[in-house]
Amino acid sequence: MRNGSSGILSSIMFLMLLGMGVVLFNLHQNYRNLKAVYENSPQIVAIDWNAFVRMDSFKDEAEQEKYFAYAKDYVKKLTEHNFYVIDARYLSAAPKDSLITLKKIKELYEDKH
Strand pairing partners for 87? Predict the structure, then answer.
């Protein structure tokens, strides 16, 4: 009797391990599929142009033109990498991590120069 029950227990354990392996394989496949969709789908970011057009944000007109050119260059690079860049004035709200501001542009380009 004891030998028979240990055979059933080992069969049950084997089936449980096999089931867990199938579940893990399916989870991994789902992860890869979601990752591929995420990487190939366009991302949306918004740019707040308000500070770029206000003269009180800059020392002079030359500085304003410089950062405006930086912002246009940054937007161009984003669109080349499958991003949609929209004007923040048309949004009622935008997450801070997807909002491009003058402050972020200054931080990005001051690090480079």
Answer: 47
Instruction: State the Cα–Cα distance between residues 21 and 24, nearest whole angstrom.
Output: 5
Q: Which pTM does this prediction carry? A: 0.59
Please choose, from the candidates 38, 41, 107, the residue with its C-alpha nearest in 3D space to the C-alpha of residue 74. 107
Mean pLDDT of 2-8: 70
The pLDDT value recorded for residue 113 is 57
Q: Which residues contact 67 (CB under 8 A, 6 or more apart)?
A: 52, 58, 102, 105, 106, 109
